[in-house]
Design goal:
An eight-stranded parallel beta barrel has the order 1-2-3-6-7-8-9-10, surrounded by eight helices. Strands 4-5 form a two-stranded antiparallel sheet. The chain is α/β, with parallel strands linked by helices. Bound molecules: 1,3-dihydroxyacetonephosphate. Belongs to the class I fructose-bisphosphate aldolase family.
Length: about 325
């Protein structure tokens, strides 16, 4: 199959009705923090057991179309000795891979960040493809302060995201493009909307410059919310503000928008997605999820690092996945 045909097939699987994506791609420091919040040690065996538990949850394929893994997981096996990406694929879930190498300071700015990992990316992707990954994820971040993001950060981050997406597509892998405006701070919702629009606007300009095929990518944005220290708006206000920005920035050619949860509670993330799928007005894209914390928090709480709790952990995952699937159809009743 040619490159475009391969990506069209992957997109069709990832965007199939009622489903969304699980991000289980935390880097070593991040998974260590997440697990330690539940008193679980981040050993290689615990990570293998846990991610295999997620990928093999019976029935979850009705709600989850793809799982983004971390590099380590692609080489690990389930208890039955099946490689995790293959176990995932057998269940009808598309395996993907986070390909960025994390954040570093962007010199010349006031502590703003840029994402690393473009060097040798094509070679790394060839290896991930061999291990079964069919789509990729790359995350850039934008912090809101009175003076940031700077124009320099907006333009440089957009350029890097677009270069990543172009390289992924050159291998026939569907890129998830993730420009995350962080929730930290005491800014209001209007400021988040303004920054999100500027970040996404610059990203789509750069994607066009690099001739990225918009039909074969997924956008993974933040929702529009005030800073963490501020009171939360109504669910409908968040949905309306987020849709307003997306309508201004995301071409209708993009098949799917899969949100990150970004520190929202599991219930908030589900309710916001649901409200967007119920809202009036044009919505030319699939609106679904690509949550990490909002899907996994309850799973880790149920698992506690004890193999005996596998059933309870899978039950918690199935529940969250099902509720987000309802929200993706606008049928969730809080
Ligand atoms: P959260 O849903 O926890 O924000 O994570 C999504 C993600 O994959 C960040 O890159």
């Amino acid at each position: 199959m040619d490159r475009i045909g391969q990506m069209e097939r992957t997109i069709a699987r990832l965007t199939s009705p009622g489903r969304g994506i699980l991000a289980a791609d935390e880097s070593y420091p991040t998974i260590t923090k997440r697990l330690s919040d539940h008193g679980i040690e981040s050993t290689e065996e615990n990570r293998r057991f846990y991610r295999s538990l997620l990928a093999t949850t019976p029935g979850v394929e009705a709600y989850v179309s793809g799982i983004i893994f971390f590099e380590e997981t692609l080489g690990q096996k389930t208890d039955e000795g099946v490689r995790i990406p293959e176990a995932c694929d057998r269940q009808g879930i598309v395996p993907g891979i986070k390909v960025d190498k994390g954040l570093t300071e962007l010199p010349g700015t006031d502590g703003e960040k840029i994402t690393q990992g473009l060097d040798n990316l094509g070679d790394r992707l060839d290896g991930y493809l061999e291990q079964g990954a069919l789509f990729t994820k790359w995350r850039n971040v934008y912090a809101i302060t009175p003076s940031t993001p700077s124009r320099q950060a907006l333009e440089t981050n957009a350029e890097v995201l677009a270069r990543y997406a172009a390289i992924a597509q050159s291998r026939g892998m569907v890129p998830i493009v993730e420009p995350e405006v962080l929730m930290d701070g005491d800014h209001d919702m209007a400021r988040c909307a303004e920054v999100t629009e500027a970040a996404q606007g610059a990203v789509f300009e750069a994607l066009r410059r690099h001739r990225v095929t918009l039909e074969c990518m997924i956008l993974k944005p933040n929702m529009v919310l005030p800073g963490k220290s501020q009171p939360r708006p109504s669910v409908e206000a968040c949905a309306e503000a987020t849709l307003k920005v997306l309508r201004r920035t995301v071409p209708a050619a993009v098949p799917s928008i899969n949100f990150l949860s970004g520190g929202q509670t599991s219930e908030e993330a589900t309710a916001h997605l649901n409200a967007m799928n119920r809202a009036d007005g044009p919505r030319p894209w699939v609106l679904s999820f690509s949550y990490s914390r909002a899907l996994q928090n309850p799973v880790q709480a149920a698992w506690q690092g004890d193999p005996a709790n596998q059933g309870a952990a899978q039950k918690a995952f199935l529940k969250r996945a099902r509720l987000n699937s309802l929200a993706r159809n606008g049928q969730y009743e809080p």
